[in-house]
Write a structure and sequence with these properties.
Layout: H1 16-38, H2 44-68, H3 73-94, H4 101-131, H5 147-271, H6 275-288, H7 290-322, E1 330-332, H8 334-344, H9 346-349, E2 353-358, E3 365-367, H10 369-385, E4 391-401, E5 407-415, H11 422-425, H12 445-455, E6 459-465, E7 469-477
Parallel strand pairs: 2-4
Antiparallel strand pairs: 1-3, 4-5, 5-7, 6-7
Length: 487
């Protein structure tokens, strides 16, 4: 609020009720000045009503005080006349019901003059007549302003009008600015629509890229499995071979047993009366070594059963590795997934590395097991290919859990192979980058593995020292224990 008039001691009459009402009038005049400066007449009607209420109360109270103190009748008549004149002028300035800046300016100018004439003039005389009746009748002040007061009030009103014009110009500029902002907003909305259209095109392109990436993952996976096909066939053929051999031997044993039994059946009526026939049957039993056959046939059957179980386990591990038909995420035990992957990679690892398992505390994680198995297979094969002579591959697992249950589960695969040069370590996750000889690998294994781990909300860390080996750690968020992203 701009306070053109500040209440001060010189305004006081010494009569508490009158001073309180005068202070209220000063506040109303200052509020009216704010309306004039702001150029907004929204509050003008409310201020006019407040002024009218003030006049009714203040004049009635002032007249009551004069009567109660028995002032001179001529003085009171003159004072009543001033009150009547004020009411008429206020009604004229406030009438019409059309609030305007000009009305505010006129009201402000009229009330400012009244403040000087009435509060600093007439009411001061009124107070002296009541508070100091023995000092005689003072001559009433003139009913007009002196030149200095007129100059001061004129300057105040010019200032308010200048501020009002400035605010009007600011309002015009603000309207122009709002128009420009609206035009700019429409232009931005049009640009946003164009950007949205381009974004949709980019989304379609990204979908196509994602589809191509998934196809690339499947191709890389099939390429890896193709390289392992001969080894897997060998793993299956070994138990199948000795099962077949055992079954051949068992067939001969059973044939001999059947021959012996047929002989027993044919000669059974003659056994009791023909000792020679009984000796012949005994000889046949000795030739067939029935005692050994009875003992060995069970071992052969046990070996055959174990061999078939091995075949079943290899096939099951291969299915677990590929997770054929599984397209949705699921809770998985990564220790089981690692064991399945090791079975699939057995032919690549045999003769090159001893695998040591150092499994720790690792809860079930919500993941895509088939894709994580691809990551583990890539890391194991890379570790085996880094072995220039038979070495050790160590698989470690564990988790770093915080108090709120969040944290990371991790799988670490370390080898003591040839290692990676420091200048190459920062590029190993780039597509098609490889340190292997030409014709060995595509340079996509680690890049695709990185992408898979990122889709699981995790990350990969690589540490290596040239000539001493490498260590890769896959970190997956424990939050996936309760739910993870979908592909």
């Amino acid at each position: 609020m701009i306070e053109a008039f500040v209440w001060q001691a010189s305004f006081e009459t010494g009569i508490a009720s009158i001073d309180q009402q005068h202070r209220h009038l000063v506040g109303l005049i200052n509020e009216l000045g704010d309306v004039l400066v702001a150029g907004s007449t929204e509050k003008l009607d409310g201020l006019v009503r407040a002024l009218q209420d003030y006049v009714l109360f203040h004049f009635a109270d002032e007249e009551r005080v004069m009567v109660a103190n028995g002032l001179d009748r001529d003085f009171m008549v003159r004072h009543y006349g001033l009150h009547t004149e004020f009411k008429q002028q206020l009604a004229g300035l406030a009438g019409g019901g059309n609030a305007s800046a000009e009305q505010a300016a006129n009201l402000h100018e009229f009330l400012s003059a009244w403040l000087v004439l009435h509060i600093l003039g007439e009411d001061q005389v009124l107070a002296r007549r009541i508070l100091f009746p023995d000092q005689g009748q003072e001559r009433p002040p003139p009913d007009h302003l002196d030149e200095g007061q007129r100059v001061l009030l004129s300057a105040v009103h010019r200032l308010y009008r200048a501020l009002s014009r400035s605010n009007a110009e600011l309002a015009r500029m603000n309207a122009d600015l709002e128009r420009r902002v609206a035009e700019r907003t429409r232009a931005l909305e049009q640009a946003n629509e164009e950007l949205e259209s381009e974004r949709e095109e980019l989304v379609q392109a990204l979908r196509a890229i994602e589809q191509a990436r998934m196809q690339l993952i499947e191709k890389e996976k099939m390429a890896s499995i193709g390289q392992l096909a001969a080894g897997i066939a060998h793993e299956i053929n070994n138990p199948i071979g000795f099962v077949s051999a055992n079954l051949g031997t068992l067939r001969e044993y059973v044939s001999d047993v059947m021959t012996l039994l047929d002989a027993y059946v044919a000669m059974e009526p003659l056994i009791a009366s023909d000792p020679q026939a009984l000796d012949a049957i005994r000889q046949l039993s000795e030739d067939a070594d029935i005692g050994f056959v009875r003992e060995d046939v069970h071992k052969l059957l046990d070996e055959s059963s174990n061999g078939l179980l091995r075949v079943k386990q290899i096939v099951q591990n291969l299915r677990n590795f590929s997770h054929a038909g599984a397209v949705e995420w699921q809770l998985a035990n990564l220790h089981d997934e690692l064991d399945s992957t090791l079975t699939v990679a057995a032919s690549e690892l045999r003769g090159k590395a001893e695998v040591r398992r150092e499994y720790g505390d690792l809860p079930l994680l919500h993941c895509h097991p088939g894709q994580l198995n691809q990551v583990f297979l890539n890391l194991l094969i890379n570790a085996a290919q880094a072995m220039e002579s038979p070495g050790v591959i160590t698989i470690r697992t564990g988790c770093d859990r915080r108090e709120d249950g969040s944290g990371w589960g991790w799988v670490e695969i370390e080898d003591d192979g040839c290692g990676i040069a420091a200048e190459d370590l920062g590029r190993i996750f780039e597509p098609f980058f490889t340190t292997k000889p030409v014709g060995v690998g595509t340079g996509l294994g680690l890049s695709l593995s990185w992408g898979i781990v990122q889709q699981h909300g995790g990350t990969m860390e690589a540490h290596s020292v040239l000539g001493r080996g490498s260590r890769f750690r896959v970190l997956l968020p424990l939050a996936n224990e309760r739910g993870g992203p979908s592909l």
